[in-house]
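Technical annex B. To support the medicinal chemistry partners, we prepared a structural model of the target in complex with NAP, based solely on the information shown next.
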Amino acid sequence: MAEQVVIIGSGPAGWSAAIYAARAALNPLVFEGAITEENRLQGTLPLGQLALTTEVENYAGFPAGRLDTFLSSALDPARLQGLPGIDEHVHAVTGPELMELMRQQAVNFGTRIITDDVVDVDLESRPFRVMAREGETIETHTLIVATGARANYLGLPSEERFKNRGVSACAVCDGALPRFRQRPLVVVGGGDSAIEEATHLAKYAARVSLVHRRDALRASRIMQQRAFDNPKIEIVWNHVVDEVLGTDDDGVTAVRLRSTVADATRELPCSGLFLAIGHTPNTSFLRGKLDTTDKGYIRWTAAFRTSTSVPGVFAAGDVADDYYRQAITSAGTGCMAALDAERYLVEQNL
Ligand code: NAP
């Protein structure tokens, strides 16, 4: 028998959609993604981008304070184990904790979960067909796509060569590795992510050079001030990384910087290069099947609705939003998608 609602994705949008769909007795099934090295490298592991961040200060309902007591009582002990920083945790909630709580909240209402990637969908058949990497095919009357977005890389061959040996797009995942401790590091980007990465890395590194291609940061003022106030962070204005330098034995040893305002290059010694230069939506499995923007983000087809170009398919979170991209807006559109799916099922007598 076909499912009522299948949700693809396990970030704030996916779990919020699941919580609402489960409470509406739609018995949702979530594909949360697979735990593979490939997904780790490209930042698409289950629980989404928030699981790759540190403290979350701006998600309403999670104020600063001792949340460890609350978390211990709320989570299954098996999932609690290994959450970073839980013992000394006295300030706001962390991204991984928030995601575990959302997942558990969805499970508590009866959400079923498959830990696999969706690799293809057939949106022409009714019900729709959803194909997973391990070969499972599920039929469903409605589909909520909440697959989020992943970090971009510069696209240099030398960057590819040193991935896992000094090049990373996730300071929180990799920053504490021995190869980076007490070493000079480079972060590329000028947005909130770049500052967040640089601030996180500054805890372990000898110094952090934030390389930005312009002479003004894109980041919010409060984040900018954090970078300016941190004595370990130096901002290298008007430069881009031209080449990653290193050896097979040592990994990254330096980057070559190119000025964006003069005809000049120079080498900056470092043991690590962290990219924070924006995101790409995870929509490759949908190519040609749903209307997307030039950048691949799914297009919502009506104002303040999560409907897409295929009736019965809804999109939520960063996969359809290259503008707000916040945990709380993703959660909000996840809720909307579940309500839209519920109304669609009623209208279609499904
Ligand atoms: P973003 O705001 O799009 O910033 C990307 C940065 O990378 C920009 O400074 C951009 O330079 C630079 N860039 C892009 N392509 C580049 C290239 N090829 N070479 C060199 N530099 C390049 O992305 P984000 O920082 O990931 O933030 C995304 C969203 O998440 C934002 O809405 C942000 O507010 C939010 N966020 C919030 C927090 C927080 O509040 N704690 C933390 C992280 C992210 P230009 O400025 O020149 O375009």
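Notes passed to the chemistry partners:
The chain has two domains: 3-151+279-347, 157-275.
The chain is about 25% helix and 25% strand.
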